[in-house]
Structures are given as C-alpha cells and as structure tokens.
Amino acid sequence: MGRRGGLLDIDGWQSMDPGAAAQAVQVSAYPDRYAVNQPIAEKVLSALSGVSLSSSLDCAQPASELPANLPPGFPGAFVTAAATQLGKPYVWGGGNFDGPTGGGFDCSGLVLYAAYQASGGRIRLPHYSGSQIRAGQGIAWSAKQPGDLIFFSYPGAGGPHHVAIYVGGDRILHAPRTGDVVRYGTIGEFAGEVMTVRRLG
User: Fold this and answer.
1) Among residues 79, 125, 82, which one has the least CA distance to residue 105?
2) Where residue 183 sits, what CATH number does that domain have?
3) What is the pLDDT of residues 96-123, one digit of tens each?
4) pLDDT value for 54
5) C-beta separation of 87 from 63 below 8 A
6) What confidence tens digit (pLDDT) does each residue in 66-106 have?
7) In 59, 82, 100, 118, which residue has its Cα 20 to 30 A from 90's Cα atom?
8) What domain count does the chain have?
9) Does 167 reside within a domain?
10) Which of 59, 107, 127, 161 is catalytic?
11) Which residue in the list 59, 127, 161, 162 is annotated as catalytic?
12) Between the CA of residue 156 and those of 30, 31, 190, what are the distances in Å?
C-alpha cells in the first residue's frame, strides 16, 4: 500500500500561504476555515516557543509610502484610496462606501470603499468578492496593470475567496484575514491558487 501524500508531496509548499497549504493536503469542503485560524495558531506557537512569528508582515510597507509610478486617473486614485486605510484591522464584513465599519475592512469591503472613493461615487460595488468578480472587464494575466483587481480561488472552488488590488511587480494591497491588517502583500502569498484579473473604471 502506497504512502498517503502529505505536505512534502505538494510542489512549492514552502512558499504557499499556510491556509492554502493545509487545504492542499486536507482538501476540506470548507477551505476558507484554515486561513482564519492562522493568527490564533501563530499566537499559541509564539506563547509556547517564545519566538515571535511575523511572516504575515514580512512584506509590509510603511503606511505613508505609495508604490512608485502609479498610473494616472482611476487606477492610481484607486490604489491611493485603498492605501489611506493601511493598518486598519481586518474585520469580517467590514467596510462600506464611507470607510471602515466595525473598526476595519474585509477584502471586498476595502475594494468597494476604494473604488467608490476613486470614482467620485460612480462605482458602487457589492460587498462580496464572488459578486465583485463580475464587475469591470476581464484582463489577461500578462496585461495586468496597477489598479487592477486580482481574485484568488482555490482550485476546483466555485468562486473566489479573496480579492486584492494589484500595485505592480509581485505586490498587492489587501485586507488579508482575521488577525491581520490592511497592508501590502505579494501575489506569492497565494501560490497554487487560481488567479483572475479584472479592471474597473
């Protein structure tokens, strides 16, 4: 009888987000439930080991610093509007057209806030990444530009579990998960996932 596959059998597991890695091994019917428990697991491990884990903030960028060479018009204004919320806590269901609710934002709340602000109120997105993925127009991965949206889906899932604003290179701006804050991150945090690019405006 062959050995059951595990984490070491997953290609690229070292660079995967821990929640995505757990899903790749366990293949749960509820894939989003791994990632939401990561901050709690990190706190427990930190308390027991005395080692502070800062992996989720390794790619943090100072709140006052905007990415260089933002495009003019809506795309640049979109990134800038989202960047005004850097450091706000992740709050599930948080965020509306006017700003944070419940003290913060979730991923789609940050996107709908920034789009509304950047468009002068013309773009009113729904508060759900599964609906936001139908807004704007589809863009080829190779043609993505700062200010585009990137949606992340687990392979085989019926829709995205996360949305982020692309800012250039490998960088994104997003509200990642419970226990985290609105921050800059990298596309590599979602290695192994299906990625869809959409352009608003």
Assistant:
1) 82
2) 3.90.1720.10
3) 999 999 999 999 999 999 999 999 999 9
4) 46
5) yes
6) 777 788 999 999 999 999 999 999 999 999 999 999 999 99
7) 118
8) 1
9) yes
10) 107
11) 162
12) 12, 11, 15
Active site residue 161: no
Helices and strands in the chain: count of H runs, count of E runs? 6, 6
Contacts with 42 (C-beta within 8 Å, 6 or more apart), sequence order? 53, 55, 56, 179
Instruction: Say what the pTM is.
Output: 0.70
Task: Report which of 165, 188, 167 is spatially closest to residue 175, judged by C-alpha positions.
Answer: 165
Looking at 59, 127, 161, 174, which residue is catalytic? 174
Question: What residue type is assigned to position 2 of the chain?
Answer: G
Assess if residue 176 is contained within a domain. Answer: yes
Task: With beta carbons less than 8 A apart as the criterion, state whether 112 and 127 touch.
Answer: yes
Residue 3 has pLDDT above 90, yes or no: no
Cβ pair 49, 65 in contact under 8 A: no
Torsion-angle region of residue 71: left (phi > 0), alpha (psi -120 to 50) or beta? beta
